[in-house]
Design goal:
The chain has about 425 residues and is mainly β. Helices cover about 10% and strands about 55% of the residues. α2 runs parallel beside α4. This is Outer membrane protein with beta-barrel domain.
Length: about 425
């Protein structure tokens, strides 16, 4: 099983590199000429350093970068423009902060992603392995970074200092272009260093009639679903010092679930985080056999079980077309197990001739426990409406009043997807 999971995780990035997703777009070359064609549109979690571009469906693919391209666009979705500018290098991750203010920067030629533009100012972003930064430009000027710093107080290592200089920068711009808009000026004082907050403020600075003609689409998106599944549960016992598990059955019960998909980039839809909440049941039935005190023991254990599962998953569409997608998903299941009506029927036989001696039945109190397991799924999506899949979770341990149990899950189901991305 470990080899299976390792192979699956190694294959996903290889498939990612191999898959192309050409969309209508254009580039602007160094001469300022616009060349229409098709851009290989990816789930860029960092600003791309280069892109693949072709002028026709069957033409040669050319690599475009900051050395030969001023700008490029995926029509209706994204627009990137090259700038040579100063980029801050101070870390903002709370687990890796500097002691004292870090104002270090580097000057590089990069592609900035346009978030929103207009007649007065334009808002851009740049994400690399360090962090996400936001830049603002007046007119056709080179963008300036909106400054946000977090660092450890050098005089008290138990405290951090947060510098929200970007708020002052935005206050200057709203006063310059929309001096009568006191409401937005007040909102800036409480704004977060986030795309959604900054985009709203920049739209106000540009005014209702000052938006850019370049159309871009937000990358963020959510989708919801409801579904039904046939959930198979196989229960075996870990046994005791003198009893070993001899047999078990796979019991199938209906499962109902609801979930939410959060896209890395809704316009591409290749990678997403799926969060699912499900409820199902199980009727456990397994046998134990052993010997003790000169007798053969045969035990049959039965119980009822309810299982509520929270299952976050990483889902990758390795075949990704507008009307059909094929995916793999790997996740972690947090399974709340509630066992009731647990009974142990024990029969005793002579060790010498196998003759029946006696039997007894014990009934146990209800029990509950948490099972954490790895989940895997493979499925396909049709017309962004129906999701059909099969899934498997290897054995995990659950406590009962009798003996510790191992439970594995098998399932096949269908989801109905709804809501705009």
């Amino acid at each position: 099983m470990k080899k299976y999971f390792t192979t699956l995780l190694l294959l996903i990035p290889l498939i990612t590199l191999a898959q192309s997703n050409y969309k209508p777009g254009y580039i602007i070359n160094l001469n300022g000429d616009t060349v229409k064609g098709f851009v290989d549109y990816k789930d860029w979690n960092q600003n791309p350093k280069s892109i693949n571009f072709k002028t026709g469906n069957n033409t040669q693919v050319d690599k475009q970068n900051t050395n030969n391209t001023q700008a490029f666009a995926v029509t209706g979705f994204e627009y990137y423009k090259r700038f040579t500018l100063a980029i801050s290098m101070a870390k903002t991750n709370t687990s890796d902060l500097s002691t004292g203010m870090d104002s270090s920067s580097t000057t590089s030629a990069v592609f900035l992603r346009l978030i929103t533009g207009g007649k007065n100012v334009s808002l851009y972003s740049f994400t690399d392995s360090l962090k996400t930064r936001y830049f603002i430009a007046e007119g056709n000027s080179v963008p300036t970074e909106l400054t946000y710093r977090v660092f450890i107080n050098p005089e008290d290592g138990s405290k951090t200092v947060t510098q929200t200089i970007y708020r002052r920068q935005l206050q200057v711009l709203i006063a310059r272009y929309q001096p009568a808009d006191k409401k937005t000026a007040n909102q800036i004082q409480f704004s977060d260093y986030s795309e959604s907050d900054l985009q709203k403020i920049v739209s106000k600075i540009n005014g209702p009639n000052g938006q850019s003609k370049i159309k871009v689409e937000s990358q963020n998106g959510l989708r919801f679903y409801v579904g039904l599944a046939a959930n198979g549960t196989k229960t075996t016992s870990q046994g005791t010092a003198y009893l070993n598990s001899t047999s078990s059955t796979v019991n199938f019960f209906p499962e109902v679930h609801v979930g939410m998909d959060a896209f890395f980039n809704k316009n591409v839809g290749t990678v997403l985080i799926r969060t699912e909440l499900s409820v199902t049941a199980n009727k456990g039935n397994y046998n134990l056999q052993g010997a003790a005190d000169g007798l053969l023991l045969a035990e049959n254990i039965t119980f009822n079980q309810k299982i509520i599962t929270l299952n976050p998953q990483f889902l990758y569409n390795f075949y990704n077309k507008p009307t059909a997608k094929i995916y793999l998903a790997v996740g972690v299941g947090f399974n709340a197990s509630f066992i009731s009506n647990e009974k142990r029927n024990t029969s005793y036989y002579s060790l010498f001739d196998g003759a029946f001696v006696t039997s007894n039945v014990l009934t146990f109190n209800n029990s509950s426990s948490l099972l954490i397991d790895v989940t895997t799924k493979a499925g396909f999506t049709l017309n962004n409406k129906f999701d059909i899949y099969v899934g498997f979770s290897p054995e995990g341990s659950v406590n009962s009043r009798n003996t510790p149990l191992n439970i594995a899950f098998y399932k096949a189901g269908i989801n109905y997807l709804f809501g705009k991305k």
